Fold this protein.
Amino acid sequence: MGQEFVLLVSASVFCVGVCGFVIRKNPLIMFMSVELMLNSVNFLLITYSSFLNSLDGQIFALFIMTVAAAEVVVGLAIILTIFRTRHEMDVDHIDALKG
C-alpha cells in the first residue's frame, strides 16, 4: 500500500464527510459526517505514523478518538433534548438553544 493510495482514500472519505455535512439537514447525519471526517484524519495519521516508524501519530489518533467519543455523547444528548421539546429534526428551524 503506497502513500498515494492512502492519501487518496483518506481525502475521498474526508470529501464524502464534508459533502454529507453540507448537503444534509438532519443532525444525526451531520454528526455521522463529522465522525467520518475525523476517522479519515485518523487513518492518515496512523498510516503515516507507521511509514515514519513513530508512535506520535498513533497517540494523537487515540486522543482524537477520545475527544470524538465525548463529542458524540454531548451532541446526541442535545439532539435528543431538542427532539423531545420541538418534535422536529431540521437544523434550519432549530433555535431552541438561543435562550
Notes: The chain is about 80% helix and 0% strand.
